Amino acid sequence: MRTVYFDYNATTPLDPQVREAMLPFLEGIYGNPSSVHHIGRRARSILDDARDRAAKVLGSKPSEVIFTSGGTESNNLAIFGAARLLKPKGRHLITSVIEHHAVLHCMDYLEKKEGFEVTRLPVSREGFVSPEDLAKAIQPDTILVSIMAANNEIGTVEPVAELGALCRERGVLFHTDAVQWFGKEPFQDVHQFNADLVSICAHKFHGPKGAGALFVRSPLLPDPILFGGGHENERRAGTENLASIIGMVEALERFVRVPVFSREALLPLSEQLASMLEGLAGVRMVGPRDRRLVNTVSFLVEGSDSIALLAGLDLEGICASSGSACSAGSIEPSHVIVGLGIERKLANSLVRFSLGRESTRTEIEYAGEVVPRVIKRAQRAQ
Ligand SMILES: Cc1ncc(COP(=O)(O)O)c(C=O)c1O
């Protein structure tokens, strides 16, 4: 059976050159950067150099880069760290209803257990957060706003620079979860988001899993969420994973400066896929046409559900995703799709195709043959 991987928003394969750069750190170079002897000092100098390289790509100071274990940890550190630091100033936090759970569940926790108040902004039918809504939601005791740069399920690219500028004007910290954005959108430097905190995750752009970074604009120092040694400027205790860090830096240099998800290559493919889908009975596209991640094509199927659709696609070799948490045959509709104002039954039928570097026209043509059949079968099964 052929395999067609249309799930690049879930993860991307490790790039062979990135792997090559990581190998010495899984083999010969094993020192702990905190050790005082020469083996340790060698590791320390490689770590320092990696931070300089990451900062160079980001256009930041090296001290503004905190290496983490990925997008989830970067989001947790940004939100818990900033909220707890600023609690004496205020207890109001703002986010949107379509954030990743790595943001929403932090907000829920702070609200339930630590006495914060959270405003969850609504979004338009295409998933956009409105700057006017944000301006109205900011209160005198608002200390942090967290809005994602690009949505993982429907590809909406949020107007973060505008939202960030608004927060700065009003003296409120701004965090953006840019996990899906890096490697897909044109990048100048990390300041283009007008954000104080930016989450990055390596495996979304052909780096290793379990590696990420949080940009923290100086002089801000969020409270740590991991305690122990004084690593990462006392923001993140734990012996550094040099192999992963080097892998992430290598991927940042190779695949973010010039986005590895090439607009030129992917736009014709995603448009061909979208127009095939639009022609099918019962299919409803979700997400914007413009200001969308170029690789992401998401849709709902009337009279069906995600589990039947994804299983049917998988039988034909096509790997896709839904935003739903699937468990034992029952599905919770995606909170993102519900957030768009779509009724829960239909929201249960989300399918996301996310294309990438290895996607080809032949694969899109194959999908054109197979998908109509899979959809019909899944509809009949209801
Ligand atoms: C927007 C967004 N934020 C955060 C994450 C979490 O990343 P990770 O699971 O690698 O920690 C993801 C992963 O899918 C994501 O898409």
* Whole-angstrom Rg: 21 Å
**Per the principal axes of the C-alpha atoms, what is the gross shape?**
globular
**What's the helical proportion of residues?**
25-40%
CATH architecture of the largest domain: 3-Layer(aba) Sandwich
Report low-confidence residues grouped into runs of 5 or more. Answer: none
- What compounds are bound to the protein? pyridoxal-5'-phosphate
The domain tally reads 2
Strand content: 15-25%
**Number of E-state strands:** 14
Note the run of SSEs as H and E.
EHHEHEHEHEHEEEHHHEEHEEEHHEH
Quick one: CATH superfamily of the largest domain?
A: Type I PLP-dependent aspartate aminotransferase-like (Major domain)
Structural class: alpha/beta
Distance separating the two termini: 27 Å
The CATH class of the largest domain is identified as: Alpha Beta
Largest sheet: 7 strands, mixed
- Count of DSSP helices? 13
Averaged pLDDT, please? 95
What is the CATH third-level topology name of the largest domain? Aspartate Aminotransferase, domain 2
The largest sheet has its strands arranged as 2-8-7-6-5-3-4
Give a topology summary.
Blueprint: E1 4-5, H1 16-26, H2 38-58, E2 65-68, H3 71-86, E3 92-96, H4 101-113, E4 117-121, H5 131-137, E5 142-146, H6 160-169, E6 173-177, E7 197-201, E8 212-216, H7 231-234, H8 242-255, H9 263-278, E9 283-286, E10 296-301, H10 306-315, E11 318-319, E12 325-327, E13 330-332, H11 335-339, H12 344-347, E14 351-354, H13 361-380
Parallel strand pairs: 1-11, 3-4, 3-5, 5-6, 6-7
Antiparallel strand pairs: 2-8, 7-8, 9-10, 10-14, 12-13
Helix pairs in contact: 1-8, 2-8, 3-4, 9-13, 10-13
The structure holds pyridoxal-5'-phosphate.
